[in-house]
Amino acid sequence: MNITLALHRGALMCGDRTVLVCDGRKIGWRELKTRTARLAGALRALGLAPGERVAMLADSGIPYFEFHYAVPWAGGVMVPLNIRLADAELVDILNDSEASVIIADAAFGDRLATLRRGATTLRHAIVVGGAPEALDYEDLIAAAEPAEDVRRRGEDLLAIMYTGGTTGRPKGVMQSVGNAVVNLLAAIPNMEFREGMVYLHTTPMFHTAGSARIYGTTTALGVGIVLPRFDVPEMLRAIEAHRVTHTLLVPTMINRLLNSPEFAKTDLSSLTNLSYGASIMPEALLRKALELLPNVRFTQSYGMTELSPSAAYLQPKYHVLEGPLAGRIKSIGQPIHTAEIRIADEYDRELPHGEVGEIQVRGPMVMQGYWRQPELTAQTLRGGWMHTGDAGYMDAEGFIFLIDRIKDMVITGGENVYSGEVENAIYEHPKVRECAVIGLPDADFGERVHAIVVPHPGEDVTAEEIVAHCRALIAHYKCPRSVDVRHESLPLSATNKILKTELRKQSLAAPAGK
Amino acid sequence: MNITLALHRGALMCGDRTVLVCDGRKIGWRELKTRTARLAGALRALGLAPGERVAMLADSGIPYFEFHYAVPWAGGVMVPLNIRLADAELVDILNDSEASVIIADAAFGDRLATLRRGATTLRHAIVVGGAPEALDYEDLIAAAEPAEDVRRRGEDLLAIMYTGGTTGRPKGVMQSVGNAVVNLLAAIPNMEFREGMVYLHTTPMFHTAGSARIYGTTTALGVGIVLPRFDVPEMLRAIEAHRVTHTLLVPTMINRLLNSPEFAKTDLSSLTNLSYGASIMPEALLRKALELLPNVRFTQSYGMTELSPSAAYLQPKYHVLEGPLAGRIKSIGQPIHTAEIRIADEYDRELPHGEVGEIQVRGPMVMQGYWRQPELTAQTLRGGWMHTGDAGYMDAEGFIFLIDRIKDMVITGGENVYSGEVENAIYEHPKVRECAVIGLPDADFGERVHAIVVPHPGEDVTAEEIVAHCRALIAHYKCPRSVDVRHESLPLSATNKILKTELRKQSLAAPAGK
Questions:
Q1: What is this model's ipTM?
Q2: Domains detected in chain A
Q3: For A39-54, what is each residue's pLDDT tens digit?
């Protein structure tokens, strides 16, 4: 199946009905298809060769949708760029991927000069809204001849998505069209996507989850409402104004949503389905969400860029606190119907139910590998299994319980402490609004468990209270040995996960005493 | 994705819960997986090489399920055999496919000697229930070592399904694992399959629709109730006894179901979803079904073996007689989210909306080709499109209106008459229970439109009444020039379609007067 099929089918079946709304601008199915064909034509006219890379540096919006269809339509490969990265990091990625064209929002126009100086293969810059020495996005579309769709499919490379890697060379995850197709086919029933649904795009479109939702919701013939950037009041307004039925939020966003003063004043009655994922969901937060959004069907999705991105789902029926299905809410779910998941030890031996090891995944959603990094690819995909780097265990019914990123595990006095477990305990404290647990170097213990805690506005909490609270819930050695109480929100990544790397850096620079 | 995944996942997630019920026998998920692994082990021990063909000649049942998983598990290719074929036809297929093993029900045991004499590549026969000079199915499973699953996937050949071809060499449709996988992923949301549903298998499992439902319902973690052969009273009893939620019926079966004296006495309240397809649905019959089964969600599926088997669906919401969505009920539906469909003329030029031409399909459900028939394959798949041989047109919203099989079209006095259109008109007559329209040779007109009509029990109808009735509904030249009124049911194919080839043969042997 070719990745642009949804656009052809939507234009045929829905004609001029609205497919997207962003910042007051509406666009219909047929118009989206026409603009896509023209943008693809423009890329071809600029000399884009088959398989050549096109980068994008932009907030979420209609052009990001058009990028997702026009680049494969023209036969190119997408390189979506994380807008939070520094210029030097972006230059590294542009050079690593050998991108020949970059499309950017005008807001990033002033950075383009720097990027173009550093990125040796870049031939053209296209700017939405225009910029000096760049091609104007709308002019280009207006002037271009529509291209024939080359219909990239199967093993054809769809995107190189750069991920994580805080040190060293950037890691470019190679996602094939087949990877994206199998993900969207699996997402439609599991996320209960249906024709005519109104989907709020909250996830940055440079991220695999944002990208996957573009393809999934469009294939389901849903209407998309696009938030250029995540913002709680904007999101609440959009849900009410557009009668949004489906959206995806990461746990931090759900926390901020529920704690927002606007929450109680907003009509959220249209919302039927809320999926969440991308980082560990604290139990206390999930209980609160179930209580405050009693009519919403929650689905947890577990995955990562290398899994395009999903491999497990926790279905709505398991989001209950009582009855025979209770208890599964602590799980990240069961393997999707397209995925095999096992728990293995460090020698890749499968572990029995209940034992903690690495979560490993096999199936058509596993990436093709890391771009031009055959050794890292071979290591990550050894034995045919994607090594997620996540620690967890599986029960006898296939429910997977995620403990932590293996690299976020704190080794203290020879004991393994999973930061997620400690965070879960701290979140049970009624005064706590946000928290994060990291390992800091310690002369006695090798590493010590360190907590950063943000109380609710108007509340205060002491380190002693937090430690005493934890001791009632988890083993002594897992409890924080130092606590930093702050009154400002914790730093977030571009995908709205709490930025532990940043907290670690801050804590090392100015260690907070217990 | 490998085709056996559903079995691994079901055994993990559902353990000993029942997956299948047939003739009072129940089998659990884990047991089905264990038996499959052992049957695969037995096939390997018999020397089955990768890609070698294993045929099956049996009624629907648990062994047919095991065949669908064990053959790919062992690395083989399935050749399911139509049980209605004559020995000579079966021998042709066994030789054409070069099958090395055949599995059969005891009921077919006495035909095995003939088949083995004629089929030169057959090395082993395995019989469920045992037979002289054959291996016993259960003994083999009991004694075998379980095999490792070779996990056939993607382009690997899954099955050769022999189809139609009333004259000449049999046509073996090559279905890949990827064909079957994309079909099941698309079917799950469109057929509203869900975990725990109770699916009644009514379609013969040697047929692509039966095969597709094995994979689809199992992947959705549904429970299957298997009817060895189609029989209306048995079906009604099974729906009531097992609280069946989903099933698939061809129009003839729906007609017989609704006309059955047991219908009104049976509790069908569990039935939520009924899909139908495989031949043209007369409108009058569909209206009656909607009226008599008001709480059932109907979905029409359009396809054929070469499409693995589906390319279009008519959603439940269009099964209405009034309101803004009415009128679509005359359509076979819109392209599925994995398919592209166009209407083209005999030179493969795409036709505008509303014009009648051949329905052509492109996408990942299109077969790999006809086994060892490269010329026929090239002709049928020319230009990358599957040429269905069906005539129809498409409206501006992508709804497809099927007119007829091109080969069932009657050319009379230079006019094209589609038999489906005439049958639709005849079915509107209140006394008509079944009918079929064929073309018969005619000295004046080249061909003439001939109708065979079966009235309801206790009713009678004359040729004149039928012709007068038709003249009120359709053009004069389309009305039957001869009518044969019969009081016995029309002959059906193994897939329960009315057998027009047989009717044509009978009518030519003893032409019925007007």
A1: 0.85
A2: 5-9+25-176 (3.40.50.12780), 230-405 (3.40.50.12780), 413-509 (3.30.300.30)
A3: 999 999 999 999 999 9
